[in-house]
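Priority: medium. Attachment 1 of 2:
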């Protein structure tokens, strides 16, 4: 979650920087290239924000879930496996 916030902030800063550069340039080719980068970054930003919103919604869902834990065996490596407990509704895992 924090990682995605950092990524969003970084993208916003890069966008600001590019927009400044675009305003400062008088060269049409540079301006077109910058515009292209800006459009790409804007769509990245939208994707990131969408992911963040989905994560937030999911977190809310997990909080409200009346967990119903089931046990499962997962393989750690070919020789060892581990029992995990997870909720069958929201997939929240519990370590104990
Ligand atoms: Zn649950």
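Attachment 2 of 2:
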């Amino acid at each position: 979650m924090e990682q995605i916030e950092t990524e969003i902030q970084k993208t916003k800063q890069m966008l600001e920087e590019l927009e400044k550069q675009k305003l400062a340039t008088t060269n049409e080719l540079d301006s077109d290239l910058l515009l292209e980068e800006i459009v790409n970054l804007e769509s990245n930003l939208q994707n990131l924000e969408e992911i963040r919103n989905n994560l937030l919604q999911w977190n809310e869902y997990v909080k409200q879930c009346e967990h119903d834990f089931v046990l499962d065996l997962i393989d750690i490596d070919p020789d060892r496996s581990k029992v995990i407990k997870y909720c069958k509704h929201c997939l929240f895992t519990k370590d104990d």
